[in-house]
Amino acid sequence: MSDAHRPINSSREQAAASMSGYVMLIAFVALLIAVAFSIVRMAGSDPDDAAVFGFLAFVIPAVLLLVLIAAGFYMIQPNQAAAITLFGSYRGTDRTTGLRWIWPWMMKTKISVRTNNILSDKLKVNDLRGNPIEIATNVVWRVADTAQALYDVDDYKAFVDVQIEAAVRSIGSRYPYDGEDEDVTLRGSHAEVNTQLREELIARLQVAGVTVDECGLTHLAYAPEIAGAMLRRQQAEAVIAARTKLVEGAVSMVEMALDHLSEKNVVELDDERRAAMVSNLMVVLCGERDTQPVVNTGTLYQ
């Protein structure tokens, strides 16, 4: 999506300025030991007013600093991210796994960037010819831009569900279910239809920072109200196609038989005898039942 077509409130993910939590953990432990040592030392001595003032001047800020450090720790698991905001302003996304630390007044919103898999419900759609069909798909998607997913749509998971349904309906109505005269059909062009569906989903989900890794139709059938009629039509088309192939083969075989008889001068055939032979051969080759030979002891003209 070009910048000219991006929504006005579109966000862009950027790296957050966070720190390693292990470094801050070492600092936290060191400061805690120093505070504990100071308390033990003060309890085992008879301090004067200056010593008490110095003790309080160190311990009170140290305890506050310990609380401040402890409040800034957070964990990021593999394939997880944390969006950082400061008083409602997006400050970046931290994708570094492990123990992390950031100033405690900065809010952290964790979001998964793992791969998700959705199997859509069966939808009833009218194909390009207006025939009602049932169609369902499987979509593998993940969050690519955490800022867009969190701040450009209200609920990115619900948004994905709705857009999957819209894309499936769009693809289902764009092509016919089947047909010999069509270049692309839902039943016969799986690779092209799946590619078109993926491109449609990527375009629709880009506003939410979601990308689609893989998708494909998992269910495709005529709606129950026309399934019987369409099945009979498919059976009729199959019978016609089989008959066409059978006739083409029979004509070739008859032509070959006549050519061989003429070349080898086996018998001289006039037009009427040739027509009779063609008729007999076509009956033998195209008939569904076994032929019964008939011996003719006369002539063709008797």
From TrEMBL:
Its main location: membrane. SMART domains: PHB. The chain crosses the membrane at residues 21-40, 52-76. It holds the Pfam family Band_7. InterPro entries: Band_7, Band_7/SPFH_dom_sf. It is a single-pass membrane protein. It is found in: Membrane. The keyword Protease does not apply. Keywords: Membrane, Transmembrane, Transmembrane helix. Residues 71-238 form the Band domain. This is SPFH domain-containing protein.
